[in-house]
């Protein structure tokens, strides 16, 4: 049950959403037991974002949430950062220094009217 949410201060046209979704589908495999089969991607564009007190340049905040009964290895998060950052930078024209990524794992995830 991975979910990747992108909040960007820039527009995210449909073709860019598809490009990001495809890249995220490959990247999520860095987390043990995760694949594109269960990946949900959400995109919110034109989000007013100040970074370091400045909104004159594009910025993005990305959240990655996964269902995990145990701890996710730090190396998995590091690999995701290494894969997500350049694709978001290239696709949306956002400098990597203006991209934050937040990771979380939860043992409580609901789907289809029940919890895992």
UniProtKB/TrEMBL annotation:
It is found in: Secreted. Keywords: Cytokine, Isomerase, Secreted. It catalyses: 3-phenylpyruvate = enol-phenylpyruvate; L-dopachrome = 5,6-dihydroxyindole-2-carboxylate. It comes from the Bacteria. Its main location: secreted. Its EC number is 5.3.2.1, 5.3.3.12. It is an enzyme of class 5 (isomerase). InterPro entries: Macrophage_inhib_fac (IPR001398), Tautomerase/MIF_sf (IPR014347). This is L-dopachrome isomerase.
């Amino acid at each position: 049950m991975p979910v990747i949410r992108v909040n960007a201060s820039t527009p995210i046209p449909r073709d860019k959403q598809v490009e990001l979704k495809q890249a995220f589908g490959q990247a999520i495999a860095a987390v043990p037991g995760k694949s594109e089969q269960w990946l949900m991607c959400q995109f919110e564009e034109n989000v007013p974002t100040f970074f370091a007190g400045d909104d004159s340049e594009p910025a993005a905040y990305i959240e990655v949430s996964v269902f995990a009964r145990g701890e996710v290895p730090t190396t998995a998060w590091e690999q995701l950062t290494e894969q997500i950052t350049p694709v978001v930078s290239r696709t949306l024209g956002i400098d990597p220094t203006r991209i934050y990524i937040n990771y979380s794992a939860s043992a409580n995830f609901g789907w289809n009217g029940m919890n895992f």
